[in-house]
Design a protein that fits this description.
With about 230 residues, the chain is of the alpha/beta class. It is built from 11 helices and 5 strands, in the order αβααβααβαβααβααα. α3 packs parallel to α11 and α6 packs parallel to α8. Keywords: Hydrolase.
Amino acid sequence: MIYLRPWRAVPTERRLVCELILFFACLVIFSMTRATFAESLPPLKIVAFGTSLTARGGWQPALETGLSACLQRPVKVESVAKSGETSLWALTQVDRVVAAQPDIILIELYANDATLHRFVSLAQSRKNIGDILDQLQQRLPQARIIVMAMNPFSGLRGLIRPFVDSYVSAHQAEAEKRGLEFVDHRANWERLTADDLATAIPDGVHPQPDMASKIIAPELVKRIAGNNCGE
């Protein structure tokens, strides 16, 4: 006959050891199960839609890494962007964005509209972004759409965009009119000292990729994932 010793009769030290072993075993099993579940999830698809601030931005890998860590699932960011182009070009690229079937669309399309030599009026820019947003909402009703303002401009690149704030405001208004989100990254850039800002954006318009990753990606991670992610 096998005699089972009552659990309470086991010495306290031995009980503690057994309970700790059981706890850590459960923790390992939970972690493995969670990791396996995360790996089985399809990637979160994001399309970054914009100008050279996206095409040359360099912040996309940091967004993938940070967001994946927060959400515990794969994240893939694809760019539909071209340097020097305006919202008129973007109207011809909506099919490409839709074809990617993204879960989230990040949009910045005001920067070149605002340059004097491209002759895109404020009214035209506002109409274009409105048309783009309408098409995306109609064709991708489940997608989360976030319109963005990027970094401040300076030097000659700033001088040729004297009314850029008005273009930003117009795009923000069109987004908010449709119940869409708007993220303004400029305030985070402007927390840098003047010297640091000049170093971070040496040509007055295109941030260094490492600095763009530090400024833009965490803000987007927090906005998309919530729960204090990105801090």
